[in-house]
Amino acid sequence: MTTRRDAIRALAAIAALPLVERLSATELDDVWQRANMLAEPRALTAPEYHIVVSAAERIIPRTTTPGATDARVADFIDVMLADWYDPPDRARFKAGLHELDQSALKVTGRSFVQAEERQQTQLLETLDRELAVRRETREAGADDHWFAVLKHLTIWGYYTSRPGIVEELRVQLVPGRYDGNAGY
Predict the structure, then answer these.
(1) Burial class, 118, CB count within 10 angstroms (exposed 0-12 / middle 13-18 / buried 19+)
(2) What does the CA dihedral 10, 64, 172, 57 come to, rounded to 10 degrees?
(3) How wide is the angle at C-alpha 169 spanned by C-alphas 33 and 44, nearest 5°?
(4) So what's the pLDDT on residue 57?
(5) What DSSP element (H or E) covers 91?
(6) How many percent of the chain have pLDDT more than 90?
(7) Is 53:137 a contact under the CB 8 Å cutoff?
(8) Binning pLDDT at 50, 70 and 90, where does residue 77 land?
(9) How far apart are the C-alpha atoms of 48 and 113, rounded to whole Å?
(10) Hey, which of 2-16, 36-50, 166-180 has the most confident mean pLDDT?
């Protein structure tokens, strides 16, 4: 029986190539170094950061392997938003977080972070279904929707983190780098 995590793992492997092309290994390592040094969020406010923590953990929850929180995905997302996303994209993402929080208040009577995990998951699944419809109908900007960006960055952050690579994918990290075109 395939679990949601198995499906995400397979999708991450398929999605890895375009992601890797976007940032070099050195640039990605730099993002993770900055994420690991974060004392406080740079692109997100504290409440927005906590929404990202909760949402990312619902997307990739802790099971027998680490979840998004263990991998510090929210820190990765904050660095990406601060250093790699332009102000309009960052503003759209932050507006989406506000929209999610307002939806949670309307549906549960609580903020997204204070809602029960089951309720958080239901809210995110609703967004995921809406995003799927947008993509199926080839709606312009569907891939730029804030929730698409959240999912993308969550999966990218998780599967490029040490816990994602070592404990989830079970890849043995080898120090150094391989250069197939090195002179002799």
Answers:
(1) exposed
(2) 60
(3) 40
(4) 97
(5) helix 87-108
(6) 55
(7) no
(8) very high
(9) 10
(10) 36-50
